[in-house]
Amino acid sequence: MQNAGISPSVVERSLVAGPAERLSAVPHLGDDAQPLVSDLTALLAAHYGATYREVLRAPALSLGLFAVGPGHDDTQTPHQQDEVYVVLGGAAVLDIDGKRSAVAPGSVAYVPALVPHRFVEITDDLRVIVVFSPPLTNQE
Fold first, then answer.
1. Helices (H), 17-133
2. How many other CB atoms are found less than 10 A from the CB of residue 139?
3. What is the pLDDT of residues 89-132, one digit of tens each?
4. Phi (first) and psi of residue 122, to 5 degrees
5. Coil/strand/helix, residue 135
6. Where are the domains of the chain?
7. Is the pLDDT confidence value at 2 over 80?
8. Which residues of 128-137 are buried (b: 16+ CB within 10 A; e: fewer)?
């Protein structure tokens, strides 16, 4: 894995850390952040079964992985941030304020801040990259 601006040990710790360490090991990039290159396969493998796990935080955005199995009941509530989903795997229906759209690998969805949304009819293991802008806060 190659990355610029963050030592490899910080990124590798975030991939192998236990649940208590993982949150503190998320790369936090300040205003002078340098580009970061990471291995998506390694990030997915290190997901540890959590429904959502943040993997990167910068002043303008945060990036995380959402992973659930078939039949999962997505109970999320609207966020204060704009949100982009990029579906990597699985199949589901994304309900955005009552409008339903099937999603599968390659689907990209934008959800404006404060708009109700959730995944329903999850029929296959769903793996989604989630980008929040501005970053998701700890209160949500």
1. 19-22, 40-45
2. 5
3. 999 999 999 999 999 999 999 999 999 999 999 999 999 999 99
4. -80, 110
5. coil
6. 8-133
7. no
8. bbbbbeebbe
How is 68-96 classified by DSSP, letter by letter? E-TT--------SSEEEEEEEEEEEEEEE
DSSP-based three-state secondary structure for 58: strand
Which distant-in-sequence residues (6+ apart) come within 8 Å of 24 by Cβ? none
**Helix/strand/coil percentages in the chain, nearest 5:** 15, 40, 45
Count the alpha carbons within 13 Å of 125 in the hemisphere toward its beta carbon: 5
Topology at the third CATH level for domain 8-133: Jelly Rolls (2.60.120)
> pLDDT tens digit string along 18-58?
333 334 456 666 666 666 677 777 777 776 678 988 888 88
